[in-house]
Amino acid sequence: MEKIRFRENEKYVGIEYYGTNERGIGGIIKHKFKDFIVREITRERKILEIREDRPEVVFLPTGKYTTFNVTKVRRDTLEV
């Protein structure tokens, strides 16, 4: 039985186990970075769209939270 190696960022966020100790069957889950797409959905069930041609957003200088927009390309969330 071959042990599955953990990535350092998985250890960092507390992932300790995978669902199986068996060897995988092979295959490619994500061949290109756009093969895995996440759609953000609001509580009101509106699907947010990410467009690269969107206008610049102006944020107020005051507020309770820091707000930013990120478009990730070939990066894990923890790398961003």
Helicity, as a percent range: under 10%
Unreliable residue runs = none
Q: Could you tell me the number of beta strands?
A: 0
Rounded mean pLDDT score: 73
Radius of gyration: 18 Å
Distance between the termini: 34 Å
Strand content: under 5%
Q: What structural class do helix, strand and pairing data support?
A: little secondary structure
Q: What would the principal axes of the Cα set say about the shape?
A: extended
SSE order, one letter for each helix or strand: H
Largest sheet features: none
Count of DSSP H/I helices: 1
Description:
With 80 residues, the chain is mostly loops. The chain has one helix and no strands. The chain has one helix at residues 8-12. The longest helix is centred in the first third of the chain and has 5 residues, at 8-12. One of its GO terms (molecular function) is RNA binding. InterPro entries: PsdUridine_synth_cat_dom_sf, PsdUridine_synth_TruD, TruD_catalytic.
How is the secondary structure organized here?
Blueprint: H1 8-12
Features:
80 residues; little secondary structure; 1 helix; extended; RNA binding; TruD_catalytic; pseudouridine synthase activity
